[in-house]
Amino acid sequence: MMTPQDVIDREDRFLAHNYHPLPVVLAKGDGVWVWDTEGNKYLDFLSAYSAVSAGHHNPRILKAMATQVEKLGVPSRAFYTDVLGEFAERLCQVTGMDRMLPMNTGAEAVETAIKAARRWGYRVKGIKDNKARIIVCNGNFHGRTTTIVGFSSDADYRAGFGPFSSGFDSIPFGDYDALERAITPDTCAFLVEPIQGEGGIIIPPDGYLRRAQELCRNQNVLLILDEIQTGLSRTGKDFCFQYEIDKPDGLTLGKALGGGVYPVSAFLARADVMDVFEPGSHGSTFGGNPIAAAIGLEALALIADDHYSQRSFELGEYLRGKLEALQSPLIREVRGKGLLIGMEIYTNQVSARSICEALKTRGVLCKETHETTIRFAPPLIITQEQIDWAVGEVADVLSSL
Ligand SMILES: *Cc1c(COP(=O)(O)O)cnc(C)c1O
To answer: Which of 1, 216, 301, 346 is most buried, judged by most C-beta within 10 A?
Structure first.
């Protein structure tokens, strides 16, 4: 029998060291709970960065997946399949978009958005060849491909990976005037997260998205929202943009779209944006395969049937209120929308990581982002009683440090 330490040592020996996991070896999951190899039980307060909104081992997701696997797996997009169109139609209905392009990971959806925006810039807006520019925000997180890290403002993400793709302009997040100044006739798109998740749960000022949309419309610039983390009920609405606008011009989704079991992502857009793609211009061997489509459809059905957005909104308010009431001298700020909540720590006294390690020993799993902020993003099926218990553990850990 291998001990947990043996398992950890083997990972350290044979895997690239591009993560720094908490020292817990998971073997099983069910709902909001996960178990380690020794049978210890933990509440999952991270849900794989929002990918597990429906909870671990969700019976409806597993059934949809199993049923589809039995029928047809990965035929490629060289052929039509009986489920992909239904998935696309449903996704267009709930987002208000005209068309979707299925991919697998979030970064691929963002890459797709970049390609669409540039082509739209040349073919529809009339920007001169190779001149198109995309505005992004400082502190962004859109994935890990070389193009995407090239416009990150985080040195850790970029260092040593250049030369990078040009054509991106970065401005402060939430700063309307900076956006106004940055737009030029060569700007094809503004790519932004409605709330910066990896950046530390950073919420822009009220009205930012609404004003940004107005400005983009007036300047013929596409507003492309990355809701890979904030979308699909995480922030208390089906999509975070619904707090301020009817719909963007382009939208990327991922994470929870895969029901916690499979990579499913998509770029959605207005018809005139998506129609810049013709056969041969873009693709993915696994993107939109029947298993992905069946799981995505079920993930969308769960959101509607089980009122995930309302749950997320109400339980998010509740959790945020309870965390704010802790009044620990270690807490600098609690912020968030729905069940995407950040607790920023005064790290001159204690590191966010050490709080996560202490919480782990008490059966609560969460992870720091950017050293100072602990993200609380439990599965959306969490109950009030489970929140009460977890906050009690947080309180005990904070007072013991
Ligand atoms: C996680 C994330 C991505 C990247 O998704 P991957 O599936 O890891 O490639 C992109 N954008 C945002 C906002 C994310 O949170």
So the answer is: 216
Question: Which residues are catalytic, by number?
Answer: 141, 226, 255
Query: Rounded distance, CA 378 to CA 46, Å?
Result: 5
Q: What is the mean pLDDT of residues 162-183?
A: 98
How far is it, in rounded angstroms, from Cα 62 to Cα 77? 24
* 59-71 and 290-305 helices, crossing angle to 10°: 150
| Spatial distance between the Cα atoms of 232 and 53, rounded to a whole number of angstroms | 9
Question: With the C-alpha atoms ordered 249, 170, 344, 260, is the resulting torsion angle positive or negative?
Answer: positive
Q: Counting atoms of ligand 1 from 1, which one is nearest the CA of 144?
A: 9
3-class DSSP state for residue 1?
coil
Q: Are residues 117 and 8 in the same domain?
A: no
What pLDDT digit, counting tens, does each position of 239-281 carry? 999 999 999 999 999 999 999 999 999 999 999 999 999 999 9
SS3 161: coil
Q: Which atom of ligand 1 is nearest to the CA of 143?
A: 4
Give the domain extent around 316.
Answer: 4-57+307-400
**Residue 297 DSSP label:** H
Residues 281 and 340 in one domain: no
Beta bridge partners of 376: 341
Largest separation between any pair of C-alpha atoms in the chain? 65
Distances in Å between the Cα of 268 and the Cα atoms of 47, 112, 117, 186, 232 are 24, 10, 12, 23, 14
- The pLDDT assigned to 366 comes to 95
* In-domain check, residue 80: yes
Residue 340 Cα to ligand 1 midpoint, Å, equals 15
Q: Is the pLDDT of residue 236 over 90?
A: yes
Residue 225 has pLDDT above 90, yes or no: yes
Q: Is 197 in the pocket of ligand 1 (CB under 6 A)?
A: yes
- CB-based contacts of 200, cutoff 8 Å, min separation 6: 139, 342, 344, 369, 370, 372, 373
* Measured distance CA(262)–CA(235) in Å, rounded: 22
What whole-number distance in Å separates Cα of residue 108 and Cα of residue 150? 15
Q: What is the CATH number of the domain that holds 140?
A: 3.40.640.10
One-letter identity of residue 105: T
Ligand 1, atom 11: closest residue by C-alpha: 142
> Which of 200, 248, 232 lies closest to 368, judged by CA?
200
Could you identify the atom of ligand 1 that is nearest to the CA of residue 110? 10
Give Cβ neighbours of residue 27 (< 8 Å, ≥ 6 apart).
Answer: 35, 36, 37
Q: Examine the fold and report which residue of 264, 281, 305 is the final residue of a domain before the chain moves on.
A: 305
Confidence of residue 371 (pLDDT cuts 50, 70, 90): confident
